[in-house]
């Protein structure tokens, strides 16, 4: 790795990116802290789409590649678990 920028992604629906993880297919999952959503961005950064919305103050995200579970913690201290289909 030489530090060169590989790709950059922006979408007006993704506001204040807070945390990220990578799923089992290489998609980057990003929490939008003030947009209260999760975006999935393709491994090449060319395609992004909102995969969850109407979250209440999301703070952190993790994805377990074995169980295919996504865990989203909230600033309020609670957590939600989602199964990838």
What does this entry look like structurally?
The protein has no helices and seven strands. It has 85 residues and is mainly β. The chain has a domain at 57-85. The protein has a four-stranded antiparallel beta sheet, with no helix packed on it. The chain has a three-stranded antiparallel beta sheet with strand order 5-6-7, with no helix packed on it. The protein is globular and about 40 Å long.
Give the helices and strands, then pairings:
Elements: E1 17-22, E2 28-32, E3 37-41, E4 48-52, E5 58-64, E6 69-74, E7 79-83
Notable traits:
85 residues; mainly beta; four-stranded antiparallel sheet; three-stranded antiparallel sheet
Short summary:
This protein is mainly β and 85 residues long. It is built from no helices and 7 strands.
**Relative helix content:** under 10%
Beginning-to-end CA distance, first to last residue: 33 Å
Number of helices: 0
Radius of gyration: 13 Å
Mean pLDDT: 95
Side-by-side strand order of the widest sheet:
1-2-3-4
Q: How many individual β-strands?
A: 7
How much β-strand is present in the residues?
Answer: over 45%
Largest sheet: 4 strands, antiparallel
Low-confidence stretches: none
- The coarse overall form would be globular
């Amino acid at each position: 790795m030489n530090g060169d920028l590989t790709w950059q992604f922006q979408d007006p629906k993704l506001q204040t990116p807070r945390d990220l993880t990578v799923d089992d297919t290489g998609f980057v999952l990003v929490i939008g802290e003030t947009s209260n959503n999760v975006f999935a961005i393709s491994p090449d950064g060319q395609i992004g789409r909102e995969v969850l919305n109407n979250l209440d103050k999301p703070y952190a995200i993790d994805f377990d590649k074995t169980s295919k579970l996504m865990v989203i913690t909230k600033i309020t201290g609670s957590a939600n678990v989602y199964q990838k289909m």
